[in-house]
Amino acid sequence: MTTSWYQTPDSSAFPGDGNPKESSPFINSTDTEKGREYDGKNMALFEEEMDTSPMVSSLLSGLANYTNLPQGSREHEEAENNEGGKKKPVQAPRMGTFMGVYLPCLQNIFGVILFLRLTWVVGIAGIMEAFCMVFICCSCTMLTAISMSAIATNGVVPAGGSYYMISRSLGPEFGGAVGLCFYLGTTFAGAMYILGTIEILLAYLFPAMAIFKAEDASGEAAAMLNNMRVYGTCVLTCMATVVFVGVKYVNKFALVFLGCVILSILAIYAGVIKSAFDPPNFPICLLGNRTLSRHGFDVCAKLAWEGNETVTTRLWGLFCSSRFLNATCDEYFTRNNVTEIQGIPGAASGLIKENLWSSYLTKGVIVERRGMPSVGLAESTPVDMDHPYVFSDMTSYFTLLVGIYFPSVTGIMAGSNRSGDLRDAQKSIPTGTILAIATTSAVYISSVVLFGACIEGVVLRDKFGEAVNGNLVVGTLAWPSPWVIVIGSFFSTCGAGLQSLTGAPRLLQAISRDGIVPFLQVFGHGKANGEPTWALLLTACICEIGILIASLDEVAPILSMFFLMCYMFVNLACAVQTLLRTPNWRPRFRYYHWTLSFLGMSLCLALMFICSWYYALVAMLIAGLIYKYIEYRGAEKEWGDGIRGLSLSAARYALLRLEEGPPHTKNWRPQLLVLVRVDQDQNVVHPQLLSLTSQLKAGKGLTIVGSVLEGTFLDNHPQAQRAEESIRRLMEAEKVKGFCQVVISSNLRDGVSHLIQSGGLGGLQHNTVLVGWPRNWRQKEDHQTWRNFIELVRETTAGHLALLVTKNVSMFPGNPERFSEGSIDVWWIVHDGGMLMLLPFLLRHHKVWRKCKMRIFTVAQMDDNSIQMKKDLTTFLYHLRITAEVEVVEMHESDISAYTYEKTLVMEQRSQILKQMHLTKNEREREVQLIHDQSAPSCPSSSPSPGEEPEGEGEADPEKVHLTWTKDKSVAEKNKGPSPVSSEGIKDFFSMKPNQSNVRRMHTAVRLNEVIVKKSRDAKLVLLNMPGPPRNRNGDENYMEFLEVLTEHLDRVMLVRGGGREVITIYS
């Protein structure tokens, strides 16, 4: 087994994307062709749209002329051959199913496990359990191949093989995580093949080459591991050098390696047929029922006859103190006889019954023949490890064998990796891959049965063939000679190791060039011909880790984890795409179903934990860490993946569920529509609004940031896009998770109305509007600003939406700021659903406000029991689980002050003047300014609010301005310029008396403001109920004045108006 990975040579020209033409309808097109596409006048009606909408004839021409460079190492080989000269024209791929898919899959699936471990697995697990094991593993790969065939035939699969399929089906996070895990698996596969090569070299070809030699039998295992490390490092260095010098040599010998594999398998089947009538002679020596290793003796007997004299054999000397007959011998040796049996009785011997069942061994026990008579010793009698027995080198159990065996069925991706080399990839990949899996599965299943039927059980359990003179066990069955298997398997494992070292760097290069993992960018570079030099270096270093483990049985479960994880996600990708029924999911391979993919995915997951639960957890942890890293640090990619489709499907389902009814009070949270204003450069004027949004939301719930541009959509669309980008950047900077919506309207009034009405989707709509106070509303000559604001208040009320109005928003803290002390003061005047209680609770979850305590003030009237009110409010807060200080403020009835009358009169005069006098622009500005100056209170505490900017040029000190409207001044103003105002109008103006309703409202605003300023002047934030606008629109401008009076002399104010429903409850 091995897996090759490939990368398109020109992908480096498109950093950050492995295949930049994915979203294009053209597979191959050039600028010259595009210039000729639209010649002629027959399609003049569509000529203005042809830059974005190509003609059908051009599209069909591009498809018909499709050519693609063969993927993998061929492009690097051609680049080397064509250096300095004219490039040869690329021939169209001509490989069919057999040469392009079937044989490469056979070469990748058959490997070291078949030759070195399958006989041992059959001997330990027995024919029945080994059959189940092989069937489960082959079923897993067959189901994966069906899913892979569906994905591979759903369009062209460029470089990257399964990485490309998973990343484009499940998104860059899954693709990158599984791709890197599969890269690690492929790299460790290279280490496994190199270890297999060294095992064949030192155990079966040239045992004398061992550098480390054991002084006794107990040290042989450690010496073998050290030899594996030394020789493995040398072989790895040589293979990496060959790959670095030129992979064309690896490709040229690929057919030789494949021939070795096929020849070796044919030799095994020929040996099975021959053993049925002429079994080979491989005698096994047994002492009692214990298997003896042939390394230390030649004659399987205690005594031998030389002439007429009885002499002891070399076997006697291994168990006795001397070569004499009166020597002291091992007790078990003395009690039991030595017998010799045939190791390969043949297929007709009926041996299959004895090998049906398992014989699991623990480490250090002697391999014994079942059913053989022997005189045993006491259980407490220790076994001398220096005696020439065949010992078990490891504790074996079913799940361990699954982990060791599974790498022998991997390598099914070889066909999809070569899709560019195929004449008809849509047909060849499914057919060739499934046929290859069927063939290899038949070989594996038949091998399990034939090995159990032909080879003695003790020989099967003898992992290194010590009982058959150190021969490779499967080689003893082969015909015409065991050397066919030994030499064939040696070259096969060499070739598999080279292909792993060739393919793994190209997979890493494909991931690096996609740009989804930032720290891997360096591994996307290589030599001038695209050879991944740095990726090869990293691959060699990781492969060395596997070499240092030095045990093939320890490395195999590691790479099993990574391959199983990849296969699991291939099945998941197919199942997700099938269930979502995305329009682009149109695979030509029709013999798939989501249940098969789900079964394959479940089987892969089960096999991961069957093989090794702790390796499975480690592999999943690595994949999870890579996933989260790509999610937070990786490049944004839109590949039309299935996870995006799954998100859309889940969002649709959730939205439909939300339509079933309004949320319960316990689930209510402010879903904000934040209305911001942008300047001429499309930058947000008050970014503090988004800071407050972040502090209020803490990343939870829905947030829509909306803005309105004046104009027409056709003319102002680019400005709207720039505004959206600006708002999104600010949202990202302020860590506001939500959506942005910019509306273009003929006027701001309608645009805001459209946002309020159409924001959100279905049940996922805003329930709260956050807006800043129109600070300069008095300066606008057309007074449209405050009119828009009041209409906004009315519309939120009509739509049952809560409204939050921030005053002095420029003084609100940013996210980096921290309040080390202070309070959030809530002035609870009227109950409108509990918004005033909920907002400070949410704010105090944010680190900006965390150390601020919460204070709640409520107002008691003349006939209220303030002591009982405080008790009731404290109990209410206790049941709400909200900690706050409670204070009841008593406001006794008092006479309306002259200041209030004056304030009301000035307000009404200003309104009346603007209605009756048609002033010029300059006069109107002076008039508005003068009236505003007079509206400031004449008491000493009437200094401007801190942080409030002057609202007009040349503003006078409020204490020095007096309302001195006299008849002489009016006549003087009249004489300055023509005015249509009649003398009767002026007379009516000076005979005005303040409206009593307005006087009462102003009285409330003044008194409340005095109390709030007294109690909460030093508060970090003041929240209070926002009174509703008047039902009679004639008093709109008075409403703005009431709010100004109510909130003056306060630094940070949030006016809160409920949406008409309860938002907080005492119940669980």
From TrEMBL:
<keyword id="KW-0868">Chloride</keyword>
<keyword id="KW-0812">Transmembrane</keyword>
<keyword id="KW-0406">Ion transport</keyword>
<keyword id="KW-1003">Cell membrane</keyword>
<keyword id="KW-0479">Metal-binding</keyword>
<dbReference type="InterPro" id="IPR000076">
    <property type="entry name" value="KCL_cotranspt"/>
</dbReference>
<keyword id="KW-0630">Potassium</keyword>
<feature type="compositionally biased region" description="Basic and acidic residues">
    <location>
        <begin position="73"/>
        <end position="86"/>
    </location>
</feature>
<feature type="compositionally biased region" description="Low complexity">
    <location>
        <begin position="935"/>
        <end position="946"/>
    </location>
</feature>
<feature type="compositionally biased region" description="Polar residues">
    <location>
        <begin position="1"/>
        <end position="11"/>
    </location>
</feature>
<feature type="transmembrane region" description="Helical">
    <location>
        <begin position="434"/>
        <end position="455"/>
    </location>
</feature>
<feature type="region of interest" description="Disordered">
    <location>
        <begin position="924"/>
        <end position="989"/>
    </location>
</feature>
<dbReference type="GO" id="GO:0043025">
    <property type="term" value="C:neuronal cell body"/>
</dbReference>
<feature type="domain" description="SLC12A transporter C-terminal">
    <location>
        <begin position="818"/>
        <end position="895"/>
    </location>
</feature>
<feature type="transmembrane region" description="Helical">
    <location>
        <begin position="592"/>
        <end position="616"/>
    </location>
</feature>
<dbReference type="Pfam" id="PF00324">
    <property type="entry name" value="AA_permease"/>
</dbReference>
<keyword id="KW-0633">Potassium transport</keyword>
<feature type="region of interest" description="Disordered">
    <location>
        <begin position="1"/>
        <end position="43"/>
    </location>
</feature>
<feature type="domain" description="Amino acid permease/ SLC12A">
    <location>
        <begin position="396"/>
        <end position="673"/>
    </location>
</feature>
<feature type="domain" description="SLC12A transporter C-terminal">
    <location>
        <begin position="687"/>
        <end position="805"/>
    </location>
</feature>
<keyword id="KW-0966">Cell projection</keyword>
<dbReference type="GO" id="GO:1990573">
    <property type="term" value="P:potassium ion import across plasma membrane"/>
</dbReference>
<dbReference type="GO" id="GO:0055075">
    <property type="term" value="P:potassium ion homeostasis"/>
</dbReference>
<comment type="similarity">
    <text>Belongs to the SLC12A transporter family. K/Cl co-transporter subfamily.</text>
</comment>
<feature type="compositionally biased region" description="Basic and acidic residues">
    <location>
        <begin position="31"/>
        <end position="40"/>
    </location>
</feature>
<dbReference type="InterPro" id="IPR004842">
    <property type="entry name" value="SLC12A_fam"/>
</dbReference>
<dbReference type="GO" id="GO:0032502">
    <property type="term" value="P:developmental process"/>
</dbReference>
<dbReference type="InterPro" id="IPR004841">
    <property type="entry name" value="AA-permease/SLC12A_dom"/>
</dbReference>
<dbReference type="Pfam" id="PF03522">
    <property type="entry name" value="SLC12"/>
</dbReference>
<keyword id="KW-1015">Disulfide bond</keyword>
<dbReference type="GO" id="GO:0015379">
    <property type="term" value="F:potassium:chloride symporter activity"/>
</dbReference>
<feature type="compositionally biased region" description="Basic and acidic residues">
    <location>
        <begin position="957"/>
        <end position="976"/>
    </location>
</feature>
<feature type="domain" description="Amino acid permease/ SLC12A">
    <location>
        <begin position="101"/>
        <end position="273"/>
    </location>
</feature>
<feature type="compositionally biased region" description="Polar residues">
    <location>
        <begin position="21"/>
        <end position="30"/>
    </location>
</feature>
<feature type="transmembrane region" description="Helical">
    <location>
        <begin position="177"/>
        <end position="207"/>
    </location>
</feature>
<feature type="region of interest" description="Disordered">
    <location>
        <begin position="71"/>
        <end position="91"/>
    </location>
</feature>
<protein>
    <recommendedName>
        <fullName>Solute carrier family 12 member 5</fullName>
    </recommendedName>
</protein>
<dbReference type="GO" id="GO:0007268">
    <property type="term" value="P:chemical synaptic transmission"/>
</dbReference>
<feature type="transmembrane region" description="Helical">
    <location>
        <begin position="130"/>
        <end position="157"/>
    </location>
</feature>
<dbReference type="GO" id="GO:0045202">
    <property type="term" value="C:synapse"/>
</dbReference>
<feature type="transmembrane region" description="Helical">
    <location>
        <begin position="228"/>
        <end position="247"/>
    </location>
</feature>
<keyword id="KW-0325">Glycoprotein</keyword>
